[in-house]
Amino acid sequence: MGGYAEAVRERVRVARAAVVAAREAGDGYDVAVAEDELEDALRVARNVGVDPDAAPGGGQA
Known about the structure:
Layout: H1 2-25, H2 28-48
């Protein structure tokens, strides 16, 4: 599952960055959209047993 797990982790990383950017921009709508995407990405990670905070190769970040 290496490639898929890394794709899931990347989706979480991108979503987290989008939340930060939206908050910094002060855009309430973009914050809501970004938070929804992050919640969905984290749900997918949980459902497939991927640690979203693991470093590439399986170690902890």
